[in-house]
């Protein structure tokens, strides 16, 4: 992400305004040991570092009143005649509208000092050109961007609402592109929605009583909110480096140190275990520190296509194993007898199956449902019919050489969906003149292909070990038969 540029009012000054604003909030506390730093030189935007003295475990870094968080409930938009309409919008659209409203108020907004330090341009996938997105061909993340759905919601709900109340959103009526107000609103809405996706926190609301039949229970709801200063902490994939945690109480939000931190060190928050594709989609950057959580999503239709071709199944055999139809969105929907029985046990996603790294090693793991699918597609018809007739949730299938060979073919077919090879991507990354976005795309797709290659090698080794074990079993059986025959022959001679 890039900070909004203002040569007359640089980021350092705007950061100073934010700190001053935080100190003005009733009940706010800010440790003198931390400072905001400009890390754009290394592509990290803003950050928080230890300024002068080491910080101890559980030491408070800052605390602000809950009312200082910018949410739909705290925005002054709710106090206008649009309040009832805003309450009817979903959380995402409502907060987008609230931030657009507060931005339009300029210095009159309570949060102007905070809004002035938020980024104005992004490298998240929502803002890539089609040519740039094409570099991620083969990566499932392309189906998760959601730009079309977001634009539809903005066009149908936010644009008409803002145009009918244009005086409340002067940034659009004052624009030189007033004749293109729809496009201007859409562009701004995308920017705000990206800020929310990257920076918003889920805060708990007051519990509400919920009655269900004769049982009464408290339901904890959450609301999305922007938390000034808390969103300036960057993240680090090495969880040992995560040094801060935000704690919500009844009336405040407090950031505390999870470990001791030395002077000059950056203080990191935690984004969770995200694959680099999601890191790029949500935050607009890529780092090898998240490589351990890369994911490859293998489409179910590819699995079917490869195994049907491999087993040369006729139409009757195909229908016995799986019934499928294409929905209006052209996504393959599966209704598979054996997999269907295991759906609750394995949490099956019928559209795709995940390939991940084993958390405790450099090995790999498939979604267990993929083993079930391949097992059922490759078993003989009589055994399959017995499974279907039994109508019982199947246990996890044992790995077989046939299953390994089929999975290898699926992975080899999946590799062909990418535009480039591992060797070509490795060579590309050696080019120091590669654009930032192309470099990130190459790193994401290369990471996925390397995971597929790891799985291919691992499957081959498993098959070799199994074949060796079977061979040793056969040889042992032959030796036992020879010994038995020799003993029998010796007994006859006696």
Fold and architecture overview:
The chain has helices at 11-24, 83-88, 91-104, 112-115, 130-133, 147-164, 170-173, 181-199, 276-283, 300-311, 315-321, 337-341, 343-346, 368-378, 381-390, 401-415, 422-428, 436-493; strands at 2-3, 29-30, 34-38, 46-50, 60-65, 70-71, 119-121, 201-204, 208-212, 215-219, 222-226, 244-248, 252-257, 295-299, 323-326, 332-335, 352-357, 364-366. With 494 residues, the chain is an alpha+beta fold. The relative contact order is 0.10.
Helix content: 40-55%
* Quaternary structure type: single chain
**Structural Rg:** 29 Å
Q: Number of helix segments?
A: 18
Topology:
Layout: E1 2-3, H1 11-24, E2 29-30, E3 34-38, E4 46-50, E5 60-65, E6 70-71, H2 83-88, H3 91-104, H4 112-115, E7 119-121, H5 130-133, H6 147-164, H7 170-173, H8 181-199, E8 201-204, E9 208-212, E10 215-219, E11 222-226, E12 244-248, E13 252-257, H9 276-283, E14 295-299, H10 300-311, H11 315-321, E15 323-326, E16 332-335, H12 337-341, H13 343-346, E17 352-357, E18 364-366, H14 368-378, H15 381-390, H16 401-415, H17 422-428, H18 436-493
Antiparallel strand pairs: 1-7, 2-5, 3-4, 5-13, 6-11, 8-11, 9-10, 12-13, 14-17, 15-16, 17-18
